[in-house]
User: Which sequence fits this backbone?
């Protein structure tokens, strides 16, 4: 499975959009991009996934570059409850979590 | 309600005493997996299963066993626990490809 690179931490003001980047330059053609988040020590929570096209659901939007070597998770209006560690995962048959990005949403 | 249930949530045990952490899902998912989470190391996969009677090693399988006799259950077995297995453990289930995986609430294990 391809490896991902994420910034270790980011801040975002409440109500603003949070844009979390992820690099996955070694992604192969059949590998999806998944995003999960983990709030404190709870079980990780699925957010969104995509293959080539941009995706949107009730939680977030996923923007994947045309060459698929990077992606951005967008939380359009971040709230305090969005403070969590966000994991970008690339793969097909297994979820291999890296260290993720710790997002802090501030009042 | 879609659920992955792990038991126990907390466990303190002694070195060498066999233990089993149970995991059950009610979504009829084919894929199930176990992870451990340690400070600074993130979530690491221990074992996974793509269907009944099919299991494969993840990144850190040493010291662990699993079985998948029924679709809904995927127990994690520590035959002879050691202190380096003190960790937070998560079970997960999903449809094929690990898309939209559901995770349990975790089991915090301490081996003394």
Assistant:
């Amino acid at each position: 499975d391809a490896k991902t690179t994420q910034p270790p931490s980011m801040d975002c003001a409440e109500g603003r959009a949070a844009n979390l980047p992820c690099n996955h330059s070694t992604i192969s053609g059949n590998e999806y991009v998944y995003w999960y988040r983990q709030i404190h020590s709870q079980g990780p929570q699925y957010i969104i996934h995509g293959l080539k096209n941009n995706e949107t659901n009730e939680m977030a939007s996923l923007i994947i570059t045309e060459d698929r070597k990077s992606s951005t998770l967008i939380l359009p209006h971040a709230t305090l409850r969005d403070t969590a560690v966000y994991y970008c995962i690339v793969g097909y048959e297994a979820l291999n979590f890296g260290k993720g990005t710790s997002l802090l949403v501030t009042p | 309600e879609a659920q992955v249930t792990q038991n126990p949530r907390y466990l303190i045990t002694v070195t060498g005493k066999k233990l089993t952490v149970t995991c059950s899902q009610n979504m009829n998912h084919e894929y199930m997996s176990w992870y451990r989470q340690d400070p600074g190391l993130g979530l690491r996969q221990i074992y996974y299963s793509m269907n009944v009677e099919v299991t494969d090693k993840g990144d850190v399988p040493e010291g662990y066993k699993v079985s998948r006799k029924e679709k809904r259950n995927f127990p994690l077995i520590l035959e002879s626990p050691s202190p380096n297995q003190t960790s937070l453990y998560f079970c997960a289930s999903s449809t094929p490809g690990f898309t939209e995986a559901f995770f349990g609430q975790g089991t915090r294990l301490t081996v003394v």
